[in-house]
From TrEMBL:
<feature type="domain" description="Ku">
    <location>
        <begin position="52"/>
        <end position="180"/>
    </location>
</feature>
<feature type="compositionally biased region" description="Basic and acidic residues">
    <location>
        <begin position="265"/>
        <end position="274"/>
    </location>
</feature>
<protein>
    <recommendedName>
        <fullName>Non-homologous end joining protein Ku</fullName>
    </recommendedName>
</protein>
<keyword id="KW-0238">DNA-binding</keyword>
<comment type="function">
    <text>With LigD forms a non-homologous end joining (NHEJ) DNA repair enzyme, which repairs dsDNA breaks with reduced fidelity. Binds linear dsDNA with 5'- and 3'- overhangs but not closed circular dsDNA nor ssDNA. Recruits and stimulates the ligase activity of LigD.</text>
</comment>
<feature type="region of interest" description="Disordered">
    <location>
        <begin position="223"/>
        <end position="295"/>
    </location>
</feature>
<dbReference type="Pfam" id="PF02735">
    <property type="entry name" value="Ku"/>
</dbReference>
<keyword id="KW-0233">DNA recombination</keyword>
<dbReference type="InterPro" id="IPR016194">
    <property type="entry name" value="SPOC-like_C_dom_sf"/>
</dbReference>
<comment type="similarity">
    <text>Belongs to the prokaryotic Ku family.</text>
</comment>
<keyword id="KW-0227">DNA damage</keyword>
<comment type="subunit">
    <text>Homodimer. Interacts with LigD.</text>
</comment>
<dbReference type="InterPro" id="IPR009187">
    <property type="entry name" value="Prok_Ku"/>
</dbReference>
<keyword id="KW-0234">DNA repair</keyword>
<dbReference type="InterPro" id="IPR006164">
    <property type="entry name" value="DNA_bd_Ku70/Ku80"/>
</dbReference>
């Protein structure tokens, strides 16, 4: 695994240098959109909805539309003025009972690996969390944004569990839940009996993604039956006439356009002929050298 963050866990006067690693990864099979006729990848352009023209990245800013239909744009200078966090510490705010944390608040998980010299304080914090059955509420800056998070224990590792902010959790506003429902004692007894009959200790290794398995099987079957074709090679497109070849092509096109405008036929580029020697010089080279008589 590759560390995505490094810093230190700070609680009281104790500081534990750690590295953070993503604790989960997606195994979804990702497909590309391709042209059914030739297998070419489908490309998307950034088109303006007003003028229909393609827009360069340099001309794109962030926009926020208000409820009353007003548009507010933010450029790079505006975004740079926002407060960002780049600290390298996981500051423990408090230790809370584990059963008081709503799992709905959980976001992403990261394993914390201690430095070799910090193995003891790391183990001390881990065992203290286990014995007290508590989690540490912390604040940490990840990707320049401060997040609220938890420190909890999984096996021998301390997990940094980022959390959603409380206002990001929606409430179930269903009117039907407020309706009065009459439950008879016999029904409750039978429901509880059914729950007990299906009771078991949770073992996540017993479950697997059947849909992904079916996709892998389908792809393998097509591969073994020869239902494949070579992936088309995409030619690299030049960004503009910045190479010598493009420059010469542009000059040649300009010459041809100028000749066409003046009515002169376009000429093919020819090699420059070697200069001819003068006849007098040629005769001097061919004639034998004669001595001149002294006066």
């Amino acid at each position: 695994m590759r560390a995505m963050w490094s810093g230190a866990v700070s609680f009281g006067l104790v500081s534990v240098p750690v590295k953070a690693y993503a604790a989960t990864s997606s195994h979804d099979i990702r497909f590309h959109q391709v042209h059914a006729a030739d297998g070419g990848r489908i490309r998307y352009k950034r088109i303006c909805s007003i003028d229909g023209e393609e827009v360069e990245y340099a001309d794109i800013v962030k926009g926020y539309e208000t409820e009353d239909g007003e548009l507010i744009t933010l450029d790079e200078e505006d975004l740079d003025s926002l407060p960002t966090k780049s600290g390298r510490e996981i500051d423990v705010i408090e230790f809370v009972p584990a059963d008081q944390i709503d799992p709905l608040l959980f976001d992403k998980s990261y394993y914390l690996e201690p430095d070799a010299k910090a193995a003891k304080p790391y183990a001390l914090l881990r065992e203290a969390l286990v014995q007290t059955d508590r989690m540490a509420v912390v604040k940490v800056a990840l990707r320049q944004r401060e997040s609220i998070a938890l420190l909890r224990v999984r096996d021998k590792a301390i997990v940094l569990q980022t959390m959603l902010w409380p206002d990001e959790v929606r409430e179930p506003e269903f009117d039907v839940l407020d309706a009065e429902v009459e439950l008879r004692p016999q029904e409750l007894t039978m429901a509880a009996s059914l729950v007990e009959s299906l009771g078991a200790d949770f073992d996540p290794t017993q479950f697997h993604d059947e849909y992904r398995d079916a996709v892998v099987e389908l792809i393998e079957r097509k591969r073994t039956t020869g239902a494949t074709r070579p992936a088309p090679a995409v030619e690299k497109r030049e960004e503009g006439p910045d190479s010598m070849t493009d420059l010469l092509s542009a000059l040649q096109a300009s010459v041809e356009a100028a000749r066409s405008a003046s009515g002169k036929p376009a000429e093919e580029p020819q090699e420059k002929p070697a200069p001819k020697r003068s006849s007098s010089k040629k005769k001097d080279e061919e004639a034998p050298t004669k001595r001149r008589k002294p006066a």
